[in-house]
């Protein structure tokens, strides 16, 4: 399986605070990679760095064999159509409907007609099991529903990679399962994913491999089986929650 994304010796600091000292890993085409780490280890910073929302200090970010960390903001515009970011909160626009929220990237980045856009939105709402939410406002939705709409918006443009920033955080078990179902459906469509989470059961359900950040580098990388059977006390702390 070929690599679609490579992170090479990535370094990032905020003044004297060093977040990443040399992070290395690759995302394979079609897989979902779980990105774990204690609070403050820079998991979300890493996602934002991938799409240029954070400027890295050193290292390389390579997408489809092309280095993207050196691109201009204009050049990143096209990259962000192929690597999409699902924000932790859903980040919906409060003043417009579910349809308008999901359709926004299509109006911004494509020449599709309004009829074509409406059809695409209705189709993606079926994928996230929210067909009846088309005309609703974000304020009409529960937290779990807002996150699923956010996932639909991230997916509507047809990205090759989806960056999930804690999509199950703060949700009840029923909504967690709904979000994981959406992620599994995207994966079935061939979308690669990086799943930042503190939810170990969720990571074990949808991820092919696990990476754990520790002291600014990758402290563990392996399959779900290797993760579950590791004798490393550091890894065990994530499995036991102690």
Q: Mind explaining what this structure looks like?
A:
The chain has 242 residues and is of the alpha/beta class. It has a single domain, classed as Rossmann fold, CATH 3.40.50.300. It has nine helices and ten strands. Strand 7 (161-165), helix 6 and strand 8 (192-196) form a beta-alpha-beta unit. The longest helix is centred in the last third of the chain and has 16 residues, at 173-188. The protein starts with a strand and ends with a helix. The model has no long low-confidence stretch (mean pLDDT 92).
Helix share bin: 25-40%
- State the distance separating the first and last CA atoms: 35 Å
Helix run count: 9
Radius of gyration, in Å, reads 18 Å
Based on secondary structure, the structural category is: alpha/beta
Q: Provide the succession of SSEs.
A: EEEHEEHEHHHEHEHEEHH
Pick out the low-confidence regions. none
Strand order of the largest sheet: 6-7-8-3-9-10
Largest sheet data: 6 strands, mixed
The fraction of residues in strands falls at: 25-35%
By CATH, the topology is Rossmann fold
Number of strand elements: 10
Question: How would the global form be characterised?
Answer: globular
């Amino acid at each position: 399986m070929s690599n679609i994304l490579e992170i090479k010796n990535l370094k990032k600091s905020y003044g004297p605070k060093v977040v990443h000292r040399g992070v290395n890993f690759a995302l394979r085409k079609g897989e979902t990679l779980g990105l774990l780490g204690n609070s403050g280890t820079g998991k979300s910073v890493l996602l934002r760095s991938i799409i240029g929302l954070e400027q890295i200090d050193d290292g390389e970010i390579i997408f489809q064999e092309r280095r993207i960390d050196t691109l201009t903001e204009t050049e990143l515009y096209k990259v962000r159509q192929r690597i999409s970011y699902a924000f932790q909160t859903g980040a919906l626009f409060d003043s417009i409907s579910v349809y308008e929220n999901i359709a926004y990237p299509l109006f911004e980045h494509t020449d599709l007609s309004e009829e074509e856009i409406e059809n695409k939105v209705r189709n993606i709402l079926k994928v996230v099991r929210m067909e009846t939410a088309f005309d609703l406002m974000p304020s009409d939705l529960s937290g779990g529903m807002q996150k699923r709409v956010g996932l639909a918006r991230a997916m509507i443009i047809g990205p090759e990679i989806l960056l999930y920033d804690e999509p199950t955080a703060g949700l009840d078990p029923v909504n967690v399962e709904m979000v994981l179902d959406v992620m599994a459906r995207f994966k079935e469509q061939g979308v690669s994913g990086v799943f930042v989470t503190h939810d170990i059961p969720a990571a074990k359900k949808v991820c092919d491999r696990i990476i754990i950040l520790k002291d600014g580098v990758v402290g563990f990388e392996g399959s779900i089986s290797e993760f579950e059977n590791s004798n490393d006390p550091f890894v065990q702390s994530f499995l036991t929650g102690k």
